[in-house]
Amino acid sequence: MIRLPMNSLDPRSRAALGLGILLSLSFALAPAASAEIRATSPTPAQKEPTMTRHATGPFDVKVTPLPLAGPSEDATLGRMSIEKQFHGDLEATGSGQMLTASTEVKGSGVYVAIERVSGNLNGRTGTFALQHRGLMVRGEPHLEVSVVPDSGTGELMGLAGTLRINIAEGGKHSYELDYTLPDAK
Questions:
Q1: Under DSSP, is residue 23 helix (H, G, I), strand (E, B) or coil?
Q2: pLDDT digits (tens, 9 = 90+) for 58-71
Q3: Which residues contact 21 (CB under 8 A, 6 or more apart)?
Q4: d(CA 57, CA 156)
Q5: How far apart are CA 79 and CA 171, in angstroms?
Q6: Alpha-carbon distance values, 51 to 120, 156, 185 (Å)
């Protein structure tokens, strides 16, 4: 569920938040929005390639507008905090920030986000970072969410992969994480 304090926002923050949500929903709902799985070479923590695994489940997200850092008063730019609670194969919390930019062309814009995920992935505990890049070109979305290389800690050291975000009718969020992880020792 997305919880938004819309009544307490100034018009610029409301516009930025609306753009962020619009871009996120557009990327998630369009067939082209799924992140592509790419073959990756082993990280130093991975001595040899491992089998690709799959994790799925629902998640809740809270997006809160934040002021832009610096003097920018540009209404086409936005910044938001992201708080997530993952369930299913990934029992974890996520927190990070999103930056957005809109254009005068209908259906075009971009968002980038970085989030730190902390919890348990199929029985293995640790943290890792996700990098989001969403681009909308005249209504055609492109979304990539990747595990930041070498960001895994604890039992998630060596984690690599991509994440797809799905949003069903009614706004229910779910994820599909395709990943590799060295075998536990």
A1: helix
A2: 999 999 999 987 76
A3: 2, 4, 63
A4: 18
A5: 21
A6: 19, 15, 16
